[in-house]
Structures are given as structure tokens and as C-alpha cells.
Design brief:
Helix content is 32%, strand content 26%. By secondary structure, the chain is of the alpha/beta class. The strands form 2 sheets. Strands 1, 2, 3, 4, 5, 6 and 7 form a 7-stranded mixed beta sheet that branches. The protein has a 3-stranded mixed beta sheet with strand order 8-9-10. Helix 6 crosses helix 8. The longest helix is centred in the last third of the chain and has 18 residues. It is globular and about 60 Å long.
């Protein structure tokens, strides 16, 4: 370790299906957190790491599960921000990222107020869907009434982020600390978790509401060599009628799930990945 090393934790909060995972993947410059139009796609905190070797800074982003309603704000903040950070013996969070859309609701406003001394970097997402851009000005003024709003960015799914500009806003919140993760690490998620998430994403995208997002995936075995890896996995469904939906006519659906999973796995692991997937009823 050098005494120049610095770290920062950056939780990403927001409602379900607001675009947190897409932003998360852009910030770490690698697709780790799965994305879909279906609500509650992210089920657990996912850590993504971006290490700036040149400036000796490690940015640790946390993709949190989305919320619809929050009954107990203190409990929510403690569970998704304070507890994960305490595990790393890190000081309290001083800045978070909040992803919203222009139709901000009561629960988002209350979350902002409950964060109190924590500075908030707001990303207004899906602005490409706003036909009357003139509506943005009064909306921004409304948000800026909250004293803990630190900065506001605009983004959309297709828009490229200037991450270097965003990082400038984090400078005063950096803490001198030995890097928590090795410099090449992009996530604390293990291989099995990544593979399960890849398969789960394809199921969600190809079946929509026909298959519950809570469908369980098990990685039974991973056999690796220098050039490829062979995966045997199981999809566990709660109802027998879900099995033919996943298989599809003449097996077309499961074949497509496998094909798309292989493409995503190659992009992530940079090696050929062969899948054998069984579908079972729990």
C-alpha cells in the first residue's frame, strides 16, 4: 500500500425499474448488474469496483434493490447503506447517488429528506422520453430546495456518460485508505453468482411476466480450461406449467436462453462458455 491510496463507497438508490443497474454498469465500465424492464430485477446489493490506477483511487459502487414504498426510512437506510459499509470498517457514507425520473413521488422526496447530512448526486434518467424539455426547469428548482442535493445530472439508456466529469464531484469525499479490492477486480460477486445473474436476465427478458422473477437458478458445475468453460445449470420453477413456457415450441425458448447466455458470458469472462441447462419443478 502507498499512503496515496484513496477509497470511496457510492450506494446507488432509487425506485424499481428506474435505471439504477444501467447506470451502475456504465460507471464501472462493465456489465455486472442485470437489466430489464421488469420490476425488482436486482434482488440484493451488488458491489462494482472501478480502480483508477493512475490517480490511486478506488470507486466502489453499490447497486441496491429498488423500492416502491418505504415504510421505515431509517431501517431502509441502515440496511442498504450503513450495514454494508460497516463491514468494511469504513466511515459513514457522506454521499450517495439517487436515480429518479421526472415524475418524482412522495417516497423519493421523503428519502431525500431522511438522508439529511448525506450529500446526494441526482441522476434524472430517461430524459429522452420527456417531450417538453421546458418541464425540466421547474422540476430541477423543486429538487434543489433540498439542501443536501449536491449536483444533478441528466441521462438516458442510450446516452454516454462522461464519467471523468462525474468523478470530479467525488473528490472531497475520498478517504485515505488502503484499496479494499485488488486493482483488477470489477465485482465482489463470484463466478457462480455472475453466471446465475446472466441466465436470470435472459429468462426475465424472454418470458416477461409469464415466469416469476424469483425463479431459482443453480449452477451445478463449472469445468474450466484456458480457452473455455462448460456450465451445467438448473432452473427451478415453482409450478409445472412454467416448464413448457421456458422450453418453448420445439425447445426454441430454452435454446435462445442458452445462446444469449453464452454471448453475455463471453463478453464478461472473455472466453467461450458452453451451457447445459435443465428445468425442474421444485
Amino acid at each position: 500500500m502507498t499512503n496515496k491510496e484513496k477509497c470511496i463507497f457510492l450506494p446507488i438508490l432509487g425506485k424499481t425499474n428506474v435505471g439504477k443497474s444501467t447506470l451502475f454498469n456504465k460507471l464501472i465500465k462493465k456489465k455486472i448488474s442485470i437489466t430489464s424492464k421488469k420490476k425488482n430485477t436486482t434482488k440484493n446489493n451488488i458491489f462494482g469496483i472501478d480502480t483508477d490506477k493512475k490517480n490511486n483511487i478506488q470507486y466502489i459502487y453499490i447497486d441496491t434493490p429498488g423500492f416502491n414504498k418505504i415504510i421505515n426510512f431509517k431501517k431502509y437506510i441502515n440496511y442498504y447503506i450503513n450495514i454494508p459499509i460497516k463491514y468494511f470498517n469504513f466511515n459513514k457514507i457522506k454521499i450517495i447517488i439517487l436515480v429518479i425520473e421526472i415524475n418524482i413521488d412522495f417516497y423519493e422526496i421523503q428519502l431525500i429528506k431522511n438522508l439529511k447530512k448525506i450529500k446526494i448526486l441526482v441522476f434524472i434518467n430517461k430524459i429522452d422520453k420527456i417531450k417538453k424539455k421546458i418541464l425540466l426547469l421547474p422540476f430541477i428548482k423543486k429538487i434543489q430546495k433540498n439542501k443536501n442535493i449536491y449536483a444533478i445530472f441528466f441521462t438516458s439508456k442510450k446516452e454516454k456518460l462522461n464519467i471523468n466529469i462525474i468523478k470530479k464531484y467525488f473528490k472531497k469525499f475520498l478517504k485515505k485508505k488502503k484499496f479494499i479490492y485488488k486493482k483488477h477486480i470489477k465485482t465482489d460477486c463470484d463466478t457462480k453468482f455472475v453466471l446465475k445473474e446472466i441466465i436470470r436476465e435472459k429468462i426475465i427478458r424472454l418470458t416477461g411476466d409469464e415466469i416469476p422473477y424469483t425463479t431459482k437458478i443453480i449452477i451445478n458445475s463449472i469445468i474450466k480450461n484456458n480457452k473455455s468453460q462448460n456450465i451445467i445449470a438448473s432452473i427451478i420453477v415453482k409450478k409445472k406449467q412454467h416448464i413448457p413456457i421456458l422450453i418453448g415450441s420445439k425447445g426454441k425458448k430454452i435454446k435462445k436462453i442458452i445462446k444469449l447466455s453464452q454471448i453475455s458470458s463471453f463478453k464478461y469472462f472473455n472466453k467461450k462458455t458452453n451451457f447445459k441447462i435443465k428445468i425442474k419443478n421444485s
